[in-house]
Structure formats: structure tokens, C-alpha cells
Amino acid sequence: MVDGLKGFPEAINTVFPETTIQTCIAHLIRDSLDFASWKDRKAVAAVLKKVYRTATARRPPWRWTRLTLARGARNTPIAML
């Protein structure tokens, strides 16, 4: 797990070429909240936690659709993270 540290992904891939580099979930949520208004942060954080805790890849898009509909699609840039 590497959280934006420069050079680490390259160093890890040099030694372990098949490695998948991940970002810490807490940092993904924190960085995602930069795109949400202060008013919406609590609701966005609650949905993001559910999305990141989902066991299968099929369920998060449903939760994300629910969030964007509930928030008037104001937070769609978060989906790109």
C-alpha cells in the first residue's frame, strides 16, 4: 500500500513486477471529500465508506448512483478517484 509517495511504486514494481499498488482506503475517502461541499461531506463520507467496504464489484455503482441522485449529481467528480 503506497499513499502518493514518489518513487515507491516504481521501486516496488522494479523488484516485484506483478505487484498491484493500492492506496489506503482512508486516504481515498479523505481525498474524495475534497470534491464535496462542507454541507454534503457527512453524507458523502457515509456513502463512500459503504462503497469501499462492499465485497463485490457489482454493488458500488448502485450505491454511487444513489448518492449522485440524492445530491443532484453535484459530487460526480468523486467517482473519478
Main traits of this protein?
single chain, 81 residues, mainly alpha, 4 helices, elongated, transposition, transposable element, Mutator family transposase, DNA recombination
Short summary:
The chain has 4 helices and no strands. The chain has helices spanning 8-15, 25-33, 41-53, 59-70.
Describe this structure as you would to a colleague.
- Belongs to the transposase mutator family.
- InterPro entries: Transposase_mutator.
- The longest helix is centred in the middle third of the chain and has 13 residues, at 41-53.
- With 81 residues, this protein is mainly alpha-helical.
- Helix content is 52%, strand content 0%.
- The model has no long low-confidence stretch (mean pLDDT 72).
Number of domains: 1
Characterize the biggest β-sheet.
none
Structural class: mainly alpha
Distance between the termini: 16 Å
Q: What is the residue-mean pLDDT, rounded to a whole number?
A: 72
Q: Strand tally, please? A: 0
Strand content: under 5%
As a whole number of angstroms, the C-alpha radius of gyration is: 15 Å
What's the tally of helices?
4
Low-confidence stretches: none
Helix content: 40-55%
Shape category: elongated
Compressed to H and E, one letter per element, the order equals HHHH
